[in-house]
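Comment thread on ticket #2218

A.B. wrote:
> Attaching the input chain for the structure job we discussed in standup.
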Amino acid sequence: MKNFTFLYLVILLCFFNTLKAQDITLFQQFNGRYDYTAIGNTLNPAENNLDSSFCTLPTSASANLNLPNNVNIIAAYLFWSGSGNGDTQVSLNNITINAQDTYNVNYDAGSNGQLTYFACYADVTNQIINEGSTTYNLSNLDVNSVLINTPGFCNNRTNYAGWSLYVIYEDSNLHLNQINLFQGLEIINSEVQEKTIILDNIDVLDNDNAKIGFLAWEGDNALNYGESLSINGNILSNPPLNLPDNAFNGTNTFTNSTNFYNADLDVYNIENNISIGDTQVTIKMTTGGVDQFGIFRADLIILNNIITVLNSQLPDATIAINNYDVFCANREIDINYTVYNTNSTDILPVNTPISFYIDNTLIGQTTTQNNIPINASENNQTTLTIPPNYPDNFILEIVVDDNGSGNGIVTETNENNNNTFQTIQLIPLPETILLNPISACNQGEKKANFDLTQVFSQINETEYNSFSFFESLEDINEDYPILSPVNYISNSTPQTIYITAETDECFDIFQFDLQTENCPPFVPQGFSPNGDSKNDFFNIQGLYDIFENHELLIYNRYGKLIFKGNNNLKWHGQTNQGILAFSDVVPTGTYFYVLKLHDPKYKDLVGWVYLNK
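C.D. wrote:
> Ran it. Output below, let me know if you need it in another format.
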């Protein structure tokens, strides 16, 4: 969904100057036929809150890992913690392990000063796959220099170190479960007495084998002041190991150990604390209470991680863009994408909506075409038309399980991973390249015939695959070319013509003008005005409607003017001058003409014409 609602961390913490921490938040989620186990050990030889018999600590400790038969290891994480800023390099079975992240938390211990504690983690999946069930020895975890040089830890009796290994594994006999691993480093104590996490987006179909576990440090069995772990308001207990008011008491549930000093590696069955159909789990950890003398007290608890195993069957829709195609001078794009349902425990239903956004504005929608099984995917393609108000370069956001208003219709294991982004570069209409105009003889009223291919003399034809001629840019968009460019009739000049010159990727646009010019008229040597509709007038070609201001003067052989003509008056052999004006056709014979074109490019034309009746 576009509006993410996957996980709300309701942290009821007041941040004082005495406390600084990394919130415990979701680190990894696993969906499948999965479960987990954990091992670990403390480096403390005894509970340090009973007396001050020790300060420095050993640097190694061992624990046995016994995995069920026929399981596949999915992930393994090593955690280690202690007093001080952090020992970020340790060894596990003599293999050097470097911390992938280190969390620190500060605590004001009053007269003992400001004390800092650390927790590190590293992914050791490959090592655990290779070594499997065996004894694991964590070594080179050395906090002694800190303890010696900072006496406040020992004086405050918060000198500790320890380690743990979480292993998530797959077993085909298990239910489809959702495992949520939260981690960070936070303190609860007299000042901040509780930590609440609300786990959203689950769908409990069966509560069989549902469990919650945690790793915490500095818990003391002797200090049991209101320490509790609750699920959905129900306080959990695991007597005699973990009593309801002493959750952080130095125990290891996996080995039933009560001498996991100043550390807690516990797991609780919560089958009776969640119900089929639950869509939310509230987890709360507390400390603090009134002792037998009526004094409020609280143990210092350092929370490192929390893990839940719930039988929740939900899909998980994610989407990725495989590729996209853009087209020359076109605002349509073809998007090829894949919808996945991998980190899931149920099918992703058909018709799950997919929305496309630019700058949070919806520009297109589609849906999935089929039910997508667990760990499967669906490939598809859609065409988007980009509105003209967006630039040619933009970021496209695609969101699966989004109905176009930022809301989803499918409850998922993770509502935080539904979108992806892609930078898109459209290919705009190219800038036009100006060419020199071409000219043709005016055939009247500025009409002319043109061979448009004459402009190829101005273009390097070898750079292009093909050419098309168009009367407008709109005709280019509509792909409406000129069909006969070698014999093109222009009905009005000047006129602009466009050429698209195709390349492998797009095309260039050339632009040139068609112009007409008045060419020298052709004067015939004779005509026969006898009414047979053939050659009945003195037809000077290239004159009429071209040299519109011309004047035609006709003289007889005696030099008398017998006719004056113009653009609207042609000579059909009659007279319109002198005493014989408007007489019948003059006799057969030779007549002389003076053609005044009134064009600065041309002189007057003088000659003779033979009239034959």
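A.B. wrote:
> Thanks. Noting for the ticket: The chain has a mean pLDDT of 89.
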